[in-house]
Structure formats: C-alpha cells, structure tokens
Amino acid sequence: MKLNTLCLLTLALSSLEPTSAYPGLAQALTNLPTLPKRQTVTLLADLQTLPDTALSPAGLTIKNILLHNRAATSPQDLTTVYTPPGPLDSAACRASTCCVWKHVADTMAAAFLNPSTSHCNSLARQAVRLGFHDAGTWSQSGGSGGGGGADGSIILAPAELERTENRGFVDGIAPQMRAWYDSWHDAYGVGMADLVQMGATVASAACPLGPRVRAFVGRNDSAVAAPEGRLPPPESRDAEALVALFADKTIGVRELVALVGAHTASRQRFVDEVLSGLPQDSTPGVWDAVFYNETASEDPPLGVFRLPSDQALSRYPATQESWKVFADSVGGQTVWNDDYAAAYVRLSVLGVEHINDLTECTGVLPLHSA
Ligand code: HEM
Ligand SMILES: *[C@@H]1O[C@H](CO)[C@@H](O)[C@H](O)[C@H]1NC(C)=O
Ligand SMILES: *[C@@H]1O[C@H](CO)[C@@H](O)[C@H](O)[C@H]1NC(C)=O
C-alpha cells in the first residue's frame, strides 16, 4: 500500500516537474495533497485567440499562469534580478523598458517598509488594496469594452476614487500615486495603470514572507470612471454572492480565497469606526498565513478584528477547503504564496485588451524576504 502510493506520487511528480529529483521530494510530498486545482482556466482578451506561435515572451508566460500550467511557468519568480544598464537619464536606460521601473520599484519599496522593523506599513497595505480596487472593476458579463479593469482610473477619475468602497485611499496611497506619476509620467512614459499594479506587486514582495508575483508593464490608462457595483461591498457577509461576483471576473473559489489572504496585512478603518486600526490578524506587518488560522479560529487572539466577509468565506462549503489548505501551519504559506501569485497575475491583467503587448519586469521587484 505504502509502496504503491509512493510510486504513484513519484509518477505524478515526475510528470509535473521533470527536473525534480530526490532533494525536492520531501517538500513536494508535503505539498502534494494541495496541488492547484485546475478550476479557473479561462483565458483573457487576445490570449483567447492568438496561436502560441504569435505569443510574445510575456504573452506566453501570462497564458501559462492563467492556465495553471505550473510545470512550464511559475507565477512567482524568486531569483531574477534586473540590473539597470545605466543611470535613469542615459540612452541605455531609456532603451530598456524595465529600467525606469527599477527606479520606481526601489522608491516604492523604501516607502512601503517601516525602516526600524522592516515590516510593511500602511502605504504598502493600501497599495495592495488599490491594485485590487482598480483591476477588480472589470467583469466578464460587462463584455469587451464594458469598462473597468487595470487601467489606472481609480486615480485618474476622481468620481471613482470618491466612492465609498475606496474610502481611505484619498489621504494615503492616492496622493502618493499621483506624486509618483508626476515624477515619471511625462519624462519616462510611466502610466498610472502600470504604476498601480506595480505598487501592489512591490508591496507584497516587500512585506516579510510575501510572494514575489510576476510583474508586467505596458497597460493603457483610462480617465473614465469604472462601472459601479463591481467591487465587494465592505460589509458583505454573503459568501455565495462573493463567489459569484468573483466568478464574473474569471476568478475561481480557490483564487478568491488566496486573494483575500491579502488581509494578512490589513487594518480595517471603516467597517467598525470605533475599532478603527484593528488588524485582521495578529501580525499585520507580516505577509503570513496566520491570517487563515485566526479567521477560522473559535478562539481568536485579542485585538484581531475579523472581517465578516472573511469569516463567511472560511465557513462556506465551496471555499472552506481552500481556506484550510492555506491555514495549514506546515505547508500553507508556500502553497498560498504561489496561489496568490497566480491569482494576482490574473487580477492584474483584467480589462487589458492586448495582454500580448505587455513586457515582464519582475526583476525590478525587491527580493522575497524571510
Ligand atoms: C471578498 C472580497 C473582499 C472584501 C469583502 C474585502 C473587504 C475589505 C474591507 C472591508 C477592508 C477594510 C477597509 C477599511 O475599513 O479600511 C479591506 C481591506 C483590505 N483589503 Fe480587502 N476585501 C476583499 C478582497 C480583497 C482582495 C482580493 C485584496 C487584494 C488582493 C484585498 C486587499 C485588502 C487590503 C490589503 C486591505 C487593507 C487596507 C489597509 O489596511 O489600508 N481585499 N478589504
Ligand atoms: C490554528 O493553529 C493552532 C495551533 O497550530 C491549531 O491548534 C488550530 O487547530 C488552528 N486552527 C485552525 C482553524 O486552523
Ligand atoms: C493600447 O491601446 C493601443 C491603441 O488602441 C493598442 O494598439 C494597444 O495594443 C493597447 N495596449 C494594450 C496593452 O492593450
């Protein structure tokens, strides 16, 4: 029995990762029961029609990530480092798409960390939420040209920024994004849509233990406010409605559960204004899986404020299983980081018309910190 199982496991492993030999086996075995489910494999925009032979490097990478083809493409990249070919104003730097982004990402990373603790700060958590609130306004049923998505409109359209669900940005990350845009837009062509998504990926990578989500640039900006009603209401506690809302963005249950793990770094201000500032887990400066345990716990630590939506998702049959996988105190963090990364890449290209035109700049991100 034991032998049979092991053989099967080895077979399954070797077909997934042809290069993995015994050294990785122990870890792989720990992760095995939690290998990603192929549930959301919906391609997006131009990737739905372009043949593989017409794909750019970024197009192929994103396609593989959207298809959960992890044997070919990992949704995180923990090693690539981009070295600028010259100073910001040099011809060599201007000729390399990622060069200005190296300067942007370094500036962001410094702004996102508390220098004395190296924990991520309020600007970092707002940057992650901002990335979601810009891109998450896209919906499949809205159709192509239906508006919304990762287009920078959350900052460029005042009417969108002022919405209730965006409360809090206006005195924090929004003026910061504006200032960064003013520094790099005219002189270096940095767009708001890219800036907002880069902010979210720099922030998660900068937070201790956070994923290094693969980062792409080249999106188009829009100053037209996204359609209303596409983001989850802050007070929502209806898991079924949340699952449906995200399904309309091509985000499946497991991806939804991975994404709300971003609340590991969160401190609510407006759900309960009397308890403003209370975190959603006991370690808001660290991107740890403790959030999943504490949200599902019958006996949460004092001072942790659980969002009704998170509690609902931790109990709802369709999402509970993934919740448990990420809550696992041994392998949860590793599985979650990859799942979050895959789901975030999907989120970060929602509404982008020509995904194949993007360029990968993951190398500019801070390296994963333990
Ligand atoms: C089920 C869907 C979701 C609901 C109902 C929800 C709701 C909320 C609420 C109510 C807050 C507290 C806001 C406040 O009072 O200041 C919050 C904060 C936050 N959310 Fe979500 N959220 C959801 C999904 C997501 C996703 C997908 C992400 C990112 C991938 C995300 C990232 C964040 C972050 C980082 C914060 C902390 C902001 C801060 O501390 O400044 N959320 N969310
Ligand atoms: C949380 O972690 C503790 C300690 O490891 C464990 O006893 C408990 O069962 C976990 N709870 C959940 C809901 O995962
Ligand atoms: C941006 O818009 C231009 C003009 O419509 C288009 O050619 C280009 O492919 C778009 N880029 C992306 C990333 O969608």
UniProtKB/TrEMBL annotation:
Residues the entry annotates as binding Ca(2+) 2: 264, 281, 283, 288
Gene3D superfamilies per record: 1.10.520.10, Peroxidase, domain 2
Name of the featured protein: Peroxidase
Site (described: Transition state stabilizer): 129
Domain Plant heme peroxidase family profile: 149-264
List of residues binding Ca(2+) 1: 134, 149, 151, 153
GO BP term, example: hydrogen peroxide catabolic process
Disulfide bonds: 98-361, 120-207
UniProt keyword annotation of Calcium present: yes
Stretch forming the signal peptide: 1-21
Cofactors (names): heme b; Ca(2+)
Residues of the active site: 133
The protein's Enzyme Commission number: 1.11.1.-
PANTHER family per UniProt: CATALASE-PEROXIDASE, THYLAKOID LUMENAL 29 KDA PROTEIN, CHLOROPLASTIC-RELATED
Record keywords: Calcium, Disulfide bond, Glycoprotein, Heme, Iron, Metal-binding, Oxidoreductase, Peroxidase, Signal
Cofactor note: Binds 1 heme b (iron(II)-protoporphyrin IX) group per subunit.
Family: Belongs to the peroxidase family. Ligninase subfamily.
InterPro entries, alphabetized: Ccp1-like, Haem_peroxidase, Haem_peroxidase_sf, Ligninase, Peroxidases_AS
Binding site for heme b: 263
Domain of life: Eukaryota
Entry GO MF terms: heme binding; metal ion binding; peroxidase activity
SUPFAM superfamilies in the cross-refs: Heme-dependent peroxidases (SSF48113)
Pfam families: peroxidase (PF00141)
